[in-house]
Amino acid sequence: MSFDFEQELKEIPHHPGVYIMHDKQDVILYVGKAVDLHNRVRSYFRKIVGRGPQIVQMVKQIARFEYILTDSELEALLLENNLIKEHRPKYNTLLKDDKTYPYIKVTVQEDYPRILFSRVMKKDKARYFGPFTSAYAVRETIALLNRLYGLRDCSRALPKDIGKERPCLNFHMGKCCGPCTGDVTKEQYRERVEKALEFLSGKYDKILKELKAKMNAAAEAMEFEEAAKWRDLLQNVQQVSEKQKMSEGVGENKDILGIAIEEENVDADAVVQTFFIRDGRLIGREHFYMTHVGGRTKGQILADFIAQYYAGTPFIPREVYLPAPVEGQDILEAYLTGRRGGKVDIVVPQKGRKEKLVELATENARLILSKDRERMKREEGRTIGAVKEIEALLNISGLERMEAYDISNISGFANVGSMVVYEKGKPKRSDYRKFRIRTVAGPDDYACMREVLSRRFRHGLTEREETGTLPESSAQTLTSFGKFPDVIMMDGGRGQVNIALSVLRELGLTIPVCGMVKDDSHRTRGLYYNNVEIPIDTHSEGFKLITRMQDEVHRFAIEYHRSLRGKAQVASLLTEIPGIGPARKKALMRHFQSIREIQQASVGDLMEVPELREKEAQSIYDYFHPETAQKSQEPEE
Fold first, then answer.
1. How far apart are CA 310 and CA 331, in angstroms?
2. Quick check: is 332 in a domain?
3. Average pLDDT, stretch 320-345?
4. pTM, entire model
5. CB 582, CB 540: distance < 8 Å
6. Which of 22, 406, 466, 534, by CA, is between 20 and 30 Å from 48?
7. Under a CB-based contact definition with an 8 Å cutoff, are residues 557 and 523 in contact?
8. Does any domain span residue 222?
């Protein structure tokens, strides 16, 4: 049924809500919010000059629209943000980076607290510090604190498990005070935790004095190795404390935003630079890309950024400083206040240190945009430019999706196949697939490739029949098998190409097939296409892309083959252990990545496998540690 624009526009109510624009294939083009849906939606279809090329382009593609009513503009903002994140519409200004930031979590609710790495901030009575921008720095800080105060990093349930198992290696190396032994009371352990909390709160002076005193005492006692240990710890603490020196007031939590926008074009991008100030200290910075910002002001882009970014981060600061006023500031402040559970102000500073910080963030954004523009040009040459070169070589157009195939085996053992996918010159790893050959017993690569291609395209045809989706509109609904390539790249020459063409003919498919031909030194030398070998300039981006695809499909096949060999070795070795049957072997192989991990596992580690009881876990441990088992069986004198 055709969509009657004139009638539908008349029926839109004067009410807050969200509107959704669709194209003729029902793909969502744009999601927006409005205080008055009637006026906002009708404005798209009036002849207004100066609305920007991006909006003009979008309106030409609108086939229908729908809308959802809300009780307030704030509810509309929340709904709009959720729909944008779910559908990623082409013409919305999108936050390109979807990151979660690391926190340091101290489990103060436990009897024997631990210091952990976390990417979520839960309401679990633990204390959180952050967010931080560097996961590496967080892990280094946790390792430093555990070493400095001898805190545990194990997952044992204390005090319930005190004395049940032998202390771990960290205790014997002097890295943990060993609360699992029962020699450390809760009060003594809590004192160590309190010192770590002081450190995380930025109180370094006391810690530095303690470390310096211990270093000097060890040196005076001629214990130079011990003195060197305290010296290294002292230097680590000094480095951490130096990073926190940039201060902007005591105890303040705020984000400083700067923005730089690409030169005007329909698909322009922008960079938003954010400085994170926590407890008055600049703890880090991060930048984010906003796409499709052509024709939009700084305030409009920043409003979109605030709505999308703060919907996904667990920490909301008390203040957000901006370089320009934003549209709907009252609504955004109400939204942030609701998320934080306390007042949040959006401020555009006009003078003083706060304005300087905003200018600094803006200058950083300009620098990143300038550098990345050049990087993106080079990247486009490596990807889109390389694809265009391959199009010219093959004399085909519309080349977007390429699939490459390879076979891996050793003398016919564990034959496997691999399929890798490149879209617009970049690997699409979510669409990679691997195949364990079912019908070929020996080292016959041609027969293996026939099975792989037959299974791949039969699966795809079945999926298309079941969904009833036309190829041109299938991109958003079909899986990797349902999406067919624009060209197939075989890891080989004429023989492999002919196998692929034979399979496609049997299935009634017409897809171009190329062979990536190698010379006697196993280096790519050209493409085999339409019974002709086409030479390629070895310095061209097209050649480099073909080589990358060939290396990638080969790597993917070998890794799968290696994993199957490893599992076979594990299974054969485990067969020798009394009480370990097929079900328990499978459970062990699922839980552990390799035979080496099983060999190194303690009885407690082995008992984490649900299918194992203590008896079987001890049996496995004794099998790999015969010297320990023998000692335990010797009678005591």
1. 14
2. yes
3. 92
4. 0.48
5. no
6. 22
7. no
8. no
SS (H, E, C) 217-237: HHHHCCCHHHHHHHHHHHHHH
Check whether residue 513 and residue 409 sit in a common domain: yes
Tell me: do 557 and 598 sit in the same domain.
no
- H-helix or E-strand containing 79? helix 73-87
User: Are residues 559 and 601 both part of a single domain?
Assistant: no
Looking at residue 21, which CATH number applies to its domain? 3.40.1440.10
Task: Tell me if residue 22 falls in helix, strand or coil.
Answer: strand
Distances 574 to 81, 262, 602, 620, 626 between C-alpha atoms, Å: 52, 61, 16, 8, 15
- Evaluate whether residue 47 is within a structural domain: yes
- pLDDT tier, 48 (very low <50, low <70, confident <90, very high otherwise): low
372-412 per-position pLDDT tens digit: 776 666 777 778 888 999 999 999 888 989 999 988 876 44
Distance CA 566, CA 428 (A): 27
Q: Cα-Cα-Cα-Cα dihedral of 145, 146, 149, 151, to 10°?
A: 140
Q: Are 284 and 309 in contact (CB under 8 A)?
A: no
Measure Cα distances from 76 to 85, 310, 314, 325 in Å: 14, 16, 21, 20
- Overall number of domains in the chain: 5
For residue 153, list its beta bridge partners: none
Q: Which of 371, 390, 412 is the last residue of a domain?
A: 371
Strands (E), 393-470: 401-410, 413-423, 426-427, 433-436
Reference 617, options 607, 627, 625; nearest CA is: 607
Both 547 and 414 in a single domain?
A: yes
Alpha-carbon gap, residue 320 to 346, rounded angstroms: 5
CA-to-CA separations, 140 to 174, 181, 237, 366, 456, in angstroms, rounded: 18, 27, 11, 31, 45
Q: What is the Cα–Cα distance from 103 to 149, expressed in whole angstroms?
A: 20
Co-location of 556 and 484 in the same domain: yes
Nearest CA to 529 out of 491, 494, 485, 486 is that of 494
Per-residue confidence band for 470, with pLDDT thresholds at 50, 70 and 90: very low
For residues 610 and 475, state if they share a domain.
no
Task: Name the 3-class secondary structure at 406.
Answer: strand
Whether 495 and 523 map to the same domain: the answer is yes
Alpha-carbon gap, residue 173 to 155, rounded angstroms: 18
Which residues neighbour 152 within 8 Å (Cβ) at sequence distance 6 or greater? 112, 114, 146, 158, 170, 176, 177, 179, 180
Q: 323 lies in which domain range?
A: 254-371
Q: Give the domain CATH number at 591.
A: 1.10.150
Do 407 and 555 reside in the same domain of the chain?
yes
